[in-house]
Design a protein that fits this description.
1111 residues; alpha/beta; Rossmann fold; six-stranded antiparallel β-barrel; 41 helices; globular
Length: 1111
């Protein structure tokens, strides 16, 4: 059964209407059960959900066509296997384009990638689509094609595809005649889904189903422990030694128990079992896995280590690699037992230099050089021995080669002279053929230029080929030496080297090549093929050659020529030099001239690749990428499968590595209470094997001590998600574990920062954002950065939001001002979604929850697993920014969190921080939320002496100007006014106006262009009249008379008593305080009433003097 065609066949059968129909498989997608009666039921239960998930992914990609990669097609040709009606195979050439990014034919696909590559599903259409309707045009509907292969060559990129129906192309397409323009648009990558499909449709008679058979039903009591093995373990010296090693490690008790249990599994040959390690946040899961893998390496247990994503694979790989290199007696020795394979670009290997030593592509390139017959270890070792034994003979051979190269070069120069005369010969030949002038003219105009153009094209093709080869070498960055080291020097040398020059240059060249081979054979060969003793000898040889190199630089030509002679007049230099030469010869001859070669076919590179995979003890790849191991038929089977982050893996995807031939046991590491696999369809298709086994009662080894979070941070998630099973380690309990990055209670270890005035918005991808929270978060980050620079404290800040639109908005607001390429920088900032932060940790975490509505709707924010991840990333400080009203009304875990924060006195309003209050007002101003800004006093001047009342006119003017500097100056001026400060009379700017408002209005300069127009008014509250500041507008000086005339109508309605109250002044020392008097008092009683500032709003405890006057 060709499973790939089956899944692709389903996709090919869909119309656009089918793709967009969410109910297409509604009756066929059943809920996946927790237990299964048979293997057939197990495998079949995932088939329809997988098809529906594929349809859903395709529907999502079509909704964002305008952002999809699109390339113009240069030509479309039927392939040699093309045959109607089913075998619709084509070769499609793509034009060079800035949009074309693909140059990799590796087909791993677990991360988003815009490159066109193998496994992609593309739409062939005659328009560059921006929406779904562009694909389904009546005259030219789109054609779906599946990319079977991709080839990058000199002329461009070629795709080998199978299409859903014949591609209608013009016969003359690609010629000079006008033809229809076609485009190839990437829709999605099918690689992982096809691999899953293959695993689900494998033949039970030939596939390894032993482990899967044991996960169908609820496990029996003690089924995971083999009594026979348990008895053998007690008598095993190797097991006792490993147990002693584990006990002496720095692992805690729960970690040691988990490792010991997994190690014991390897020895069992009676059952096929699955072990589970449950690693809640901060419990040292990666450390435990690293130690486990290092133990399996020491036991020479062939193990496949997988993870759902490239990021997770790299994390666990680096942990083991660090342990291997730290314990290595020679740099890198032992790395040859480890192999990491996958897509170099998607893994971003260039950002992880330490992984090059075990990355398969790099290893193949390096070992190809070391095994090369003309430049490898054997060639250079024998060449060095020959040079030291008889330099005169080597020099004779060199002279002979030099003469041959010189003759060849002379012949090439002669050919070039013939080329230069080609044009003249062509013209002469034309004159002989054509006697009339007109025909000769045609010959010169058509034939000669054509021949010249042909010659020019041939040169260009060669030039492009050389340039491409050069670019590839630079891109690979392997650091390999050239195969012919003397080539450049021979080109430069018009005369042959002297004997002395030759010996020294040849020695230097061979010494460098041997060093390259020694270093890389030590790193890249498995320990089973190169012993530590041999490695020691090889490095001793290199050290000896380095010492000899110094002697060689000072020795004379006569001594070099007489190395094999025994002269009576031997001098000290000769004796010393010859002794060193003999020593080096002895060491070099003691080294193995060859290592077990991987060659078996004509494809050396492929053989080396299979050789590396065959000899490695621990292999790393993504779960999807492990499908490639099924294709290596003769490879030594793996014993153990270790899947890290197993709770993030769809159960059906885990079937890919579980079926590998010879696989006996599996170890799953994860936490089902954190994020699962991302899917579109429910029906528990995203449920992991880890989660299902935990649900039906399979035993888990819990890592129960967390080492990351301050106890104030771990308190809520431990109680809410883990039933208080997790203990805080001693290190996080220490007093010095607490950190203070900003002053104030609002910025304590754990804090909920209430932002009540946010506004939810959607971006063009239907993801939510909240610009008020964006401003608040940006201001907090800015404050930490300033404090960091001031105190020189190192701090790593992480900003998390569940919505990608919010992540983008925060990133855009903050920009690149805090980015630093310096790893030693005191400040670092990471802004990611919750999903992107799983497994990560930072010193300070700021969470932006985004949702802000009256109903308490929080959408997928209510997901407990997502909440758990967000709340457990911080080491020292966790600050949650959100709307307490929305989250409190949600009925979700967030309601509990808000209540918990209030109960623990960790609840704060954002306006408690003046800078945050200003940031909120600025955001509201940008959003034109004038209805909120009218009551901005509570945000900006809550603790001021004067209450400040704003008019809509003021906020509209500020909204029109949209000047951040002006806004800050206005706020600064209002802050002074609300504290009681008043401008001296002599500094006031007078505006001539005789209307009613002239008795009340004040205008203070903000800058040279704008003035703040305000007045004293009063309001009634709690049976008292209280004076307030009324802010009318921000206006230019020339517009103030016009504004005053408009306000004359307002103030013209004031009676004398009301005017009198507005004009009363209560001097409080150098400041002015608001008057306050009972509502039932008359104006003449006002001066007799004890005017007072509201005690709780005073700025000074003891005023110097107090008096009451009229203006």
């Amino acid at each position: 059964m060709d499973s790939r065609k089956s899944l692709i066949g389903s996709v090919f059968s869909w119309s656009i209407k089918d793709v967009l129909n969410n109910n297409l498989y509604k009756g066929r997608v059943k809920h996946i059960p927790e237990t299964f009666s048979s293997l057939a039921e197990y495998l079949e239960s995932f088939i329809n959900p997988l098809i529906e998930e594929t349809r859903s992914d395709l529907s999502s990609s079509m909704a964002t066509l305008s952002e999809s990669m699109c390339c113009q097609i240069d030509f479309v040709k039927p392939s040699k296997d093309f045959q109607l009606p089913n075998d619709l195979f084509y070769t499609i050439g793509l034009k060079e384009s800035k949009e074309k990014k693909g140059d990799d034919d590796d087909d791993d696909d677990d991360d988003d990638d815009d490159d066109l590559g193998k496994g992609d599903l593309v739409a062939i259409t005659n328009v560059r689509p921006t929406c779904i309707n562009d694909l389904d045009r009546p005259r030219r509907p789109y054609v779906i094609a599946f990319v079977l292969g991709i080839q990058d060559h000199i002329e461009g990129l070629s795709l080998f595809v199978q299409s859903s129906k014949p591609i209608r192309v013009e016969d003359d397409m690609g010629k000079n005649q006008k033809s229809e323009v076609l485009f190839a648009v990437k829709l999605m990558n099918m690689t992982t889904n096809i691999r899953i499909w293959s695993a689900l449709n494998s033949d039970p008679k030939t596939a390894n189903m032993n482990i899967i058979q044991n996960v169908l039903q609820t496990p029996l009591t003690n089924a995971e422990n083999c009594n026979l093995c348990h008895a053998e373990e007690k008598c095993s010296a190797a097991h006792s030694a490993m147990k002693a090693r584990i006990s002496s490690s720095d692992l805690n008790e729960s970690q040691q128990a988990a490792v010991l249990s997994c190690i014991g599994t390897r020895e069992c040959h009676h059952h096929n079992t699955i072990k589970m390690i449950w690693g809640p946040p901060g419990t040292g899961k990666t450390k435990t896995v690293g130690f486990l893998l290092h133990s399996l390496l020491k036991m020479e247990c062939r193990t496949l280590t997988c993870a759902p994503t490239n990021t997770a694979v790299l994390e666990v790989t680096k942990r083991l690699l660090k342990g291997v290199t730290e314990s290595s007696k020679y740099h890198g020795y032992g790395c040859g037992d480890l192999v990491l394979f996958g897509n170099k670009k998607r893994m971003k290997i260039k950002n992880h230099n330490e992984l090059y030593d075990i990355f398969l592509d790099h290893r193949v390139a390096v070992l190809s050089q070391c095994y090369s017959r003309k430049s490898g270890w054997n060639y250079n070792l024998l060449s060095m021995i020959s040079l030291l034994e008889d330099p005169k003979e080597e020099y004779s051979l060199y002279l002979k080669e030099w003469e041959e190269k010189k003759l060849k070069k002379d012949d090439e120069n002669a050919d070039k002279k013939n080329v230069f005369s080609e044009s003249r010969v062509i013209n002469t030949y034309g004159k002989k053929i054509f006697k009339d002038e007109r025909s000769q003219k045609v010959w010169r105009q058509i034939v000669v230029p054509t021949l010249k153009e042909k010659s020019k094209k041939e040169k260009n093709v060669k030039g492009k080929h050389k340039e491409k080869q050069s670019n590839r070498k630079e891109k690979d960055g392997n650091g390999l030496p050239g195969k012919n080291e003397e080539t450049e020097k021979d080109k430069k040398a018009e005369n042959p080297l002297t004997f002395e020059e030759f010996v020294k240059e040849r020695f230097n060249c061979k010494e460098e090549s041997l060093h390259f081979c020694i270093k890389n054979l030590c790193i890249h060969l498995p320990t089973s093929l190169i012993s530590l003793e041999v490695v020691k000898k090889m490095f001793e040889a290199y050290d000896s050659l380095k010492s000899f190199k110094k002697l060689l630089q000072d020795v004379s030509s006569e001594v070099l020529k007489d190395v094999n002679a025994y002269s009576v007049n031997e001098g000290h230099n000769f004796v010393k030099f010859n002794a060193a030469r003999s020593k080096n010869l002895h060491i070099l001859k003691s080294l193995p001239s060859k290592f077990p070669p991987p060659y078996s076919t004509e494809n050396d590179s492929l053989d080396i690749r299979e050789f590396c995979m065959e000899k490695a003890c621990i292999v790393f790849c993504t779960v999807s990428g492990s499908a490639k191991l099924h294709k290596v038929g003769t490879m030594k089977p793996f014993e153990l499968l270790v899947i890290d982050e197993a709770a993030q893996l769809k159960e059906c995807e885990s079937a890919i590595p579980l079926q590998l031939s010879g696989m006996r046991h599996a170890i799953l590491i994860g936490d089902e209470l954190q994020l699962p696999a991302m899917i579109s369809e429910e029906a528990d298709f995203g449920r992991s094997l880890f989660e299902r086994l935990a649900f039906i009662g399979h035993k888990k080894h819990l890592l129960n001590v967390q080492h990351r979070m301050h106890p104030l941070i771990s308190l809520f998630p431990n109680r809410e998600f883990y039933d208080n099973q997790i203990l805080d380690s001693q290190n996080v309990k220490l007093r010095n574990y607490s950190r203070c990055f900003l002053p104030g209670k609002l910025y304590g270890t754990y804090s909920f920062i209430n932002v009540p005035h946010g506004k939810e918005e959607f971006d063009n991808k239907h993801s939510r954002k909240n610009r008020v929270e964006v401003s608040v978060v940006s201001e907090i980050v800015a404050s930490i950065y300033k404090e960091c620079k001031l105190t020189k404290k190192k701090v790593k800040v992480g900003v998390i939001s569940p919505y990608k639109a919010q992540v983008h908005a925060i990133s855009e607001k903050i920009g690149k001002q805090y980015n630093s390429s310096d790893a030693q920088s005191d400040f670092s900032l990471s802004i990611r979604s919750v999903d992107g932060f799983q497994g990560g940790e930072e010193d300070v975490i700021i969470i932006s929850t985004v949702r802000s509505n009256v109903s308490g709707s929080v959408g997928f924010l209510s997901n407990r697993q997502r909440t758990n991840v967000a709340l457990t990333r911080a080491r020292y400080c966790l600050w949650i920014v959100g709307s307490a009203m929305t989250l409190g009304n949600s009925g979700s875990v967030w309601r509990k969190l808000v209540i918990d924060a209030k109960d623990r006195c960790c609840f704060h309003n954002a306006e408690e921080d003046k800078n945050l209050a200003n940031a909120i007002v600025a955001a509201l101003l940008e959003l034109n939320q004038f209805n909120v800004l009218v009551n901005a006093h509570a945000l900006l001047f809550k603790s001021a002496k004067w209450k400040v009342c704003f008019t809509n006119s003021f906020w509209r003017s500020m909204g029109r100007v949209r000047d951040g500097e002006l806004f800050n100056k206005v706020l600064f001026l209002l802050e002074k006014l609300s504290s009681g400060w008043r401008q001296p009379q002599e500094k006031k700017t007078h505006v001539v106006h005789a209307g009613s408002s002239s008795h009340f209005l004040e205008h203070y300069m903000v800058n040279k262009q704008f003035y703040l127009v305000w007045a004293v008014d009063f309001i009634e509250e709690s049976s008292y009249y209280t004076q307030v500041l009324k802010v009318w507008d921000v206006s230019s000086l020339s517009d103030i008379p016009k504004l005053s005339k408009q306000l004359d109508i307002f103030y013209g309605s004031y009676i004398v008593d009301k005017m009198s109250r507005c004009k009363h002044v209560c001097n409080d020392g150098n400041l002015v305080g608001p008057m306050r008097w009972p509502v039932d008092s008359s104006s003449h009683e006002a001066n007799q009433f004890l005017s007072k500032s509201l005690g709780s709003l005073r700025l000074r405890d003891e005023p110097e003097t107090s008096s009451t006057t009229n203006r």
